[in-house]
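hi!! sorry for the late reply, been swamped w classes. u asked for the two structures so here they r. pasted raw, havent cleaned anything up. first the sequence of the first protein and right below it the tokens
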Amino acid sequence: EVLELYSGGENKRKRKRQIAADLKRSCGTMSAGAYEEVDDEDLQVLGTTDCLRISDPADTKRIYLASRRMVEWAIKGGIEALLVDGNFSFTPTPSLPKKLAFQLYTVRVCTRGTSFLLMAALLPSKTAKEYSKLLESLAELFQDFNHSLSGVRIVSDWENGIIKAIRDTVPMMSHEGCLFHALKCTNHKLSHFGLKIAGKSYPVIKEWTNRVRASFFLPRCFFKSAKILEVPVTPIHSQYAACKNFIDYFKDEWMTHPEPMTCKFMVESHRTSNLVESWHRWMMPKYSTKMYFGKNITPFL
């Protein structure tokens, strides 16, 4: 039902295939490597006895779906983190009189070194009120299974609505911000100030912007030695003002209020909702080989 209604967007086929594959894998009907083989018709074979609609059936604006088996697996395996994220679009469904705005919102659970879909929802808007209703249903779902979410880590993007909803609705959970989303925001601002283009002409700016992007994955004690908060060029340089303006933005947005959400040094897993740390796991064996043994890690990074 969620997939049928949420049919808009450039990547609709990819999203539908991946969610369908997640659901079918949850039911034990397919392997993880068969994502590309999933077609729309395959959605019809999904079992319905295991699926819970935990929203009001009469509410056509909000649809929350969860898998009973996935909740049981999450509790049995031990919840390491819940990853929440959404994708907003319009649904050009022929049966509807006009295009309706929906956000497809998913909750994934991390346990025992893997992650799987726990809950999928259609939301009519991106507001704290809507997110709160969803989180209340999620908490009630686990209560029905006599399981508390107290102390469980929940990772979200930096949208004000979801931040407020998490802190108001499930304050017993440990809230963290997704560093991948923070990196995307920073990349957009670097482009906004023209620093990505400037980096092509000035290597010193390119090197500095690379350090800025890496800063989200570094402990704060390295900020000074890496000169992340220092303008990399002299005041007479044509890009001095752009660099200074970006640093002011970076200090205001990322060095002040989000601090409790980004303090993740020594947390080794699930720091981002796309599990980008898998790249680090790929990198470390290469660094430990004789080719790099004894060399300074800075040029390698």
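now the second protein. again sequence first, tokens right under
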Amino acid sequence: RRFWNVTVGFEKVLKYYRISRISAVISR
């Protein structure tokens, strides 16, 4: 269960990182 939690957290961070990158490109 702990491993699954870590995986979900990593996925969330990846999504957030991708969104922030996209928004940064758009705001340029």
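hope this helps!! also noticed smth abt the second:
The mean pLDDT is 89.
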